[in-house]
Here is the input.
Amino acid sequence: MSHANCLFLMALDADAFLGDEEEQREFIESEFSDRFGDRLDENNYFHHLAVFFKDGSYLIWPKSEPGGFADVANENRWQAVHRYALQCVSVDFKLFGAITWTFGDNENEGNKKIDGLTFDDLLSEIYTTVPASLSEKYSTLQGKPAWMGNLPDESWMTEYDRRKMVLMFEALRNSDNVPFTKWGIVTPYEYRAFDLTRCEEPNAILITDIHT
Here is the structure.
């Protein structure tokens, strides 16, 4: 059991920007529930942290902070949050041996390497490294798949990690706005960046802490 920051690409209409901050938060919460609520289970309790708008402004939830994004210039903030989404996905791929990523978390060498790459270079690294890693994992398999319940703990985790990596990679490939997936079969258990738009121009990225 753990917590992870998940990011949601949204297209909010004008109503999201009317009223006071509490009314804006309520509108965004309703949109989130309508478009993603059916992919959460009873274990996925969550807390919205902040929403960042394409114009560089942002809105935070009570007892939350905008992290290092508050220090980013308005004109660069949207791109910074977009890059953060890809960083979260990269960490879940365990790129460079990275560990769990929250707001600007660069406590180990893998995280530092991820933090030092541009969006395009990071995406290129994923597309180079992950297929090669999966190919290596599949090369050692023999026979038909085993039932997960019949595997010893060590083999179970190896099998789980490989299957999860496949789902993550396919989720990434099913992105109109990388890395936000349109693939409706994945949940926060497998992936961390989701596209909630419906053929609309995105104008907001919501960051939510979700228990998995």
